[in-house]
## 1
Amino acid sequence: MLQSFFLEVTKAEPRLQKCDEGVAFLKAALSLYGLSSVSYVAINIPKKGNQFLHCAYSNSAIRQKTTLAPLSVDGLRDLGLLQTSPVDWTASERLKIELKLRTPDGSQEVDERRAASFALSTLRGETAVFAAAIPEASANGDFLTSSVMTELRILGKYFHSHILRLNGHDTFDSLLISARELDCLKWTAAGKTAWEASRILGISERTVIFHLNAARKKLNCATTTQAVAKAVATQLISL
């Protein structure tokens, strides 16, 4: 789904490494969430020897290019793919066009709830985007719901950190928030005390406090209130 965008942004570099076999992790996400496609693009990942890696991974293919200088990401910005705010969960116009072109005659309307793309946090000066789409809505009206989008954002962040580690970058400071830590943040955001959250989650108050402290450190926040606000702002939890 993002392959054409990747080729457009990297068109100045003709040398392309490719494999027409998808990434196992993305294939698993495809199956788990009933998606029709899931894609990841990263531009300007620093490598040894003053080089930069540019890659596009999906459930069906792998594309990579290497340059001696960083590439402009204005193309991705112009295509509306570098948006991160909660209101930008719907597909960009270009993404909807891409989905439409996949229909037999190109005439079928594309429901904007079928696809979502979002920028991932920059960790080493790179630019990365994660996107997913589901098949045409089924009879019961299945769409990319807000809860699924939140989980996809977490998966995207995990996959992005993995790609950076493969290319020699320590991502320890961007450890993923665990499911239990998210639970504790969510109930705190709902106004519950640590004791009340412990009763709801079936764990001790001390354990809730431990998870909140761990989440605060992972989100690089000084207080739990800041951690909750950041988790909401980055769509890790919803109110």
## 2
Amino acid sequence: MTAQDFPPVPPQALADLSRASTATLATQLYRRGIRQPFLVGLNPVGTSFDGFVGQARTMRFIPAREDVDPMSDPYRTGNVLQWEAVEQLGSGDVLVVDSRSDVTAASAGDMLVTRAMKRGAAAFITDGAFRDGAALAELGFPTYARAITATTRPASFHVADLDVPIGCAGVAVYPGDILVGDRDGVIVVPRALAAEIAGPAAEQEQLESYLHDRVKAGQTLWGTYPPDEETIASYQAWRSANPAVDTPGDPRPSGALDGAGAAR
């Protein structure tokens, strides 16, 4: 499965999504009936990246069983799907692991995450734990997890499937969904909605930045948030007076992506 297996998402839509926070995208998805698309409880590992945009490639764990996953050597259990998943990643892919929110063992460690980065992946996400947290924090590659552990994956998990629908942190993730991450966490955007919400999300992000400045300057919430007609007119005048500010649909906005996805 590659990027060519999915309907294309316009590059400009990806660029606009890259400008929006996960909170803004949650609002846009809520308006379209998607109530809870945020991966609650997952945090960025380290502080050396701001976020990412990319498309989901999935991996599903089940509990390990001793007769299937021999415990003598954790690197030679015969279950090589985890290696296959990493070596199949392409530019802009996001490997998303369904670890059943179980942190008793790691979903991956420094070696696999580094290889994913070198393959051009946009991020590596698990609702479980990673190993080698200190090394991952220095890598500068978007990684998100519920916890850090030293325990190796075969102690608890068997890799059962790749590129199938999964649940991650209680959210359905389908291969090809668009994931967006920031310093708050990760949100899942159904691929079919990505282009529809991208422009409005970028516009909302800019409007709310303007409104935040007004509230910070002492403006009351009434008429400012949400904005009334007078505030909207003031915002539009500000936009006209600041044409250099990125607008949705600009060919190369700040944070724009090259290819299917990237760190931002």
## 3
Amino acid sequence: MEKGNQGKENQLHTDFEKEMSYGDYLQLDKILTSQHLLSDHHDEMLFIVIHQASELWMKLAIHELTAATDCIMDNNLEPSFKMLSRVSRIQQQLTQSWSVLSTLTPSEYMEFRDKLGHSSGFQSYQNRLIEFALGSKNSKMLSVYQHDEKLMQIMQTALHAPSIYDAAIGALSHKGLHIDEDVLNRDYSEPYQHNKSVEDAWLTVYQNVGQYWDLYELGEKLSDIGSQQQIWRFNHMTTVERIIGHKQGTGGSSGVTYLKRVLDQGFFPEIWSLRTRL
């Protein structure tokens, strides 16, 4: 058995002079040389890698959320379920990253925090795109991107686009469930407000699972994502509190105070409130 395996290993391709290698495909030369430390402190590498890796996971989450929203708006719900399941797993990966970052002690972080200037995770445009995609819209948050015209246009487009929850509400209506017209024709750039007709529609779905199985499955997938996003937020808040306490954030936010306030802003309100009425 060992000889047979060794024979197969001897057939490994090793000449990449004119062919694409693993590193070429992933452009590892760019990724692995993008960690530019501004201090000589050992733990700054941890800080940079955690945030860069998180941004890569966020890129994938946005990719999946965008495709899932398109499917739902096309009333093609089934393909969106796998995409949304993947988003939920990505969120778990993002949440786990906080436990790694929490190995950075307060005294260690203070050794290089001043090197960050006013750069802050608050300015993460991909995190903001995820929040927008999930329906948490706030036009005031765009001011930190006004220095970049191209990025500002991306953010404005996302602000005015329907969220995945707007798409889901449209799917309820498409299935014949009553939704108030002012909800269906609302300004997508405004924060979503709880609506009784939407809660009634979701309640009908959850009371008639067999009849509305696809909508029920969609509701549960959204519940997973909404819950995971809140868990990520909570772990973000506790990690920040553990490392810097209640100091002001480097970007000028109130830090932990702001993060605690955001926790009160959930997602997909009627999917949660209907449960009390079941």
